[in-house]
Amino acid sequence: MPFLPFFSKKYTLQDLDNYIRVKKEVARSQMESKCRILIIDDSFEDGSYPFDEQLTSLRNQYNLSITAKSDLENLYDAEAYDLIICDNQGIGIKIYGRFASGLNLLKGLIEKYPHKNYVLCSNVDVNINNFANNQKDLTRVKVWSKDVLADNERRGADSFSEKVRAEVDYTLDPVARWKMIRRNFISKTNISLSALARLEDAYVQSIMLNNPSYYERASRRISSTSEPGSFSVFLLASKSIVEFTISILSLL
Fold this sequence. Notes:
Layout: H1 13-34, E1 36-40, H2 52-62, E2 65-69, E3 83-86, H3 93-96, H4 102-112, E4 117-122, H5 126-134, E5 141-145, H6 146-155, H7 160-171, H8 174-188, H9 193-208, H10 213-223, H11 230-250
Helix pairs in contact: 1-9, 8-9, 8-11, 9-10, 9-11, 10-11
């Protein structure tokens, strides 16, 4: 019996991009509604959250699934969500103590759930800017200024609603998210380019054939010959994105 290669067909990121684009053209609103959004802001407690009207519009007009919390009791409270938008001041206190902030909470969440998409939404200061510049290891973290967003709302430019929908789009885009993880593989691990190419093939094939086992097998083979630590984190993150994407597409 002749040897059959692990991949009977080569799949590229362009194949996956075309595949996802077609899905979005047919069922964009259905896909968006499957992205579970968590917004953490202590101003929900006193009703002073500045974008309440926008949240109502996002829920009603675009059927987005949005949950609002003033803080988290524990990190597991975020497990069910795909996109997490977090304030800075007054956040993380229930887990890390009264001197904590959203920065502390985000660091804990990223460590536990590296595959999720995160946004820090607060009034920008030096600490937040430093966080945005340095937190590139596990995931892309966007930083939004509430003051700038509020001003944009008044001017009708780059509104809160538009930015939320753009992050939903990114969360649902396995190509963009793989590119971020691929950069981390290259810069922070000892993976060879040939091994990374095999991993990318398996990533695309798993999603397009609705079968995560392709990526699981490829990641097991590669991880057995590579360093632990950050490598395993990136494998876990990409594996979770594969499973998330397949679960979303299966509901359409």
